Amino acid sequence: MGDSPLSRRTFLSAAGAAGIAGLTAPLLSACGSSGPSGGGGGGKKTLQVWALQDDGQNPIQQAALDDFNKSSATKLKLVPIPDSGGSTYPDKLRIGMGSPNPPDLFFNWGTGSIQDYAQSGRLVDLTPQLTSDTAWKNSFLPSVLDAGKAADGKYYGIPMRGMQPVLLFYNKTLFTQHGQKPPTTYDDLLNLVTYWNSQKIQPFALGHLDAWPDLMWLEYLVERLGGPTVFADILAGKPNAWSNPVVLDALHRIVDLVDRKAFGTNFASVNYVNDGAGVLFAKGKAAMHLMGTWEYSNQVDKHVKFAKNDLAFAPFPTISGGKGDPNSVVGNPTNYFSISSKSKDVNAALAFLKKEMGSPMYIDKLIKAGDVPAATGLEARLSASPNPEFSKYVYQMVQKAPSFTLSWDQALPHVFTDPLHSNLQKVFLKKMTPEQFVQTLGAVK
Q1: Are residue 144 and residue 101 in the same domain, yes or no?
Q2: DSSP H helical segments within 227-345, as ranges?
Q3: What's the domain range around 348?
Q4: Which Pfam families does this entry report, sorted A to Z (predicted)?
Q5: CATH code at 183?
Q6: Does the pLDDT value for residue 24 go beyond 90?
Q7: 202/29: higher pLDDT
Q8: Which carries the bigger pLDDT value, residue 412 or residue 63?
Q9: DSSP label at 407?
Q10: Number of domains in the chain
């Protein structure tokens, strides 16, 4: 299946980590860029390409570099960076980007994860290249490519991984046995909460202990109620953006769901990362689970019989009177490669992105590893996926999405991460009111 399913959210959510830890040995060697005369002398250049270590995709990235290096005078070297040992990848990237020899190309999450670098002029603006080369721009799904923009509206990243929207997973066998259908409206969802509780079955699994699963509920409720501009205003730091009535409405709906026992009565002690919520769902003790696409891989790897016979998926329901487009999605659009403005050879770095990130070889390798790439025209090729039905569903879902909002804890600057997680947990536990939540987040600077 490629990378470990439970590791996927770990890698994707690392962008929210705060604090700068000491340099590790791998990082010191990574920062020691070979310089203009590196890589064998004779004036040849070697560019450093930073990516996450051990995420299952390194061999695919290495194959792309090897292909490029065959015909390029400037060589590219993959530098896998560990996201462990008390220091996260974003911390190490922050140190590397502040050094005299920053990485030439580097893996990131777009939006908030690159905002500081874009603002300080440390990234190459790719907008002119994408505008002038429409074939290149049109080779990526628009909603995903747009998620690689910074707050200034310019493109700084090119998609280099699979897409991971949040879906509503449900137990189709359980639903069929009880004559129920997955919810298409929020009223349907509330009716299902009542029904499953009446049958002594928990309506939704929720890994509350890990904090970030709670956030998916707030993200989708805000999206369906108010559309993507509500969070866009928060991301842009507009005055009183957190106090938008839509955010308050969404938070009150979460409290209502808790009161209705939508997540059972013991969700405060359930985790996701150690498969607590996944087990509840797989064993039929919970009927539904709102989670990113990595949940599919998790079930395939850990609960084979359930994944094969019972696992189904649907979009988050619409809300009557809501301004959001029912086709819009939230989650993790993808990961991106960005170019440092201090790169020893910007043209070579750009040539690599143009030649390799959309190449048939690279895309096919991602598909075979279980990823759903953000490239256009993949319908037929997704048949080579380990799970073609699911891959095609995810692809079509994102393909028709007018917007794809990045998970809030990854989109916002890292200073928001802890307050966002801890205070939303308090709302779920009814230890903080929605009004107190928006006031607290509105005070974060």
Answers
A1: yes
A2: 229-235, 245-259, 276-282, 294-302, 304-309
A3: 5-163+333-406
A4: SBP_bac_1
A5: 3.40.190.10
A6: no
A7: 202
A8: 63
A9: P
A10: 2
Q: Is the pLDDT of residue 10 over 50?
A: no
Question: How many whole angstroms separate alpha carbon 420 and alpha carbon 211?
Answer: 9
Which residue type, as a one-letter code, is found at position 287?
A
Q: Is the dihedral of CA 445, 226, 293, 304 positive or negative?
A: positive
Q: How far is CA 312 from the centre of its chain?
A: 21
Same domain, 12 and 115: yes
Burial class of residue 445 in the structure, from the number of CB atoms within 10 Å of its CB (0-12 exposed, 13-18 middle, 19+ buried): exposed
User: How far apart are the two ends of the chain, measured CA to CA in Å?
Assistant: 40
- Mean of the per-residue pLDDT values of the chain: 89
pLDDT for the residue 410? 86
Q: pTM, whole model, 2 decimals?
A: 0.85
pLDDT at 19: 28
More confident residue, 25 or 236: 236
Is the domain of 310 the same as that of 173? yes
Q: Indicate whether 383 and 314 sit together in one domain.
A: no
DSSP, res 120: T
Question: Do residues 268 and 389 both lie within one domain?
Answer: no
Residues 395, 435 within the same domain = no
Task: Give the DSSP letter string of 144-182.
Answer: HHHTTB-TTS-B--EE-SB-EEEEEEEEHHHHHHTT---
How would you class 215 by CB atoms within 10 Å of its CB: exposed for 0-12, middle for 13-18, buried for 19 or more? buried
Contact (CB, 8 A) for 196 and 189 = no
Is the backbone of residue 159 left (phi > 0), alpha (psi -120 to 50) or beta?
beta
Contacts of 352 (CB under 8 A, 6+ apart): 64, 65, 68, 72, 76, 105
Task: Assess contact for 148 and 159: CB atoms under 8 A.
Answer: yes
Instruction: Enumerate the β-bridge partners of residue 344.
Output: none
Same domain, 144 and 225: no
Nearest-CA neighbor of 110 among 370, 412, 402, 421? Answer: 412
Does residue 34 sit in the same domain as residue 47? yes
Query: Taking 50 as the threshold, does the pLDDT of residue 151 lie above it?
Result: yes
Distance (Å, whole) CA 356 – CA 70? 12
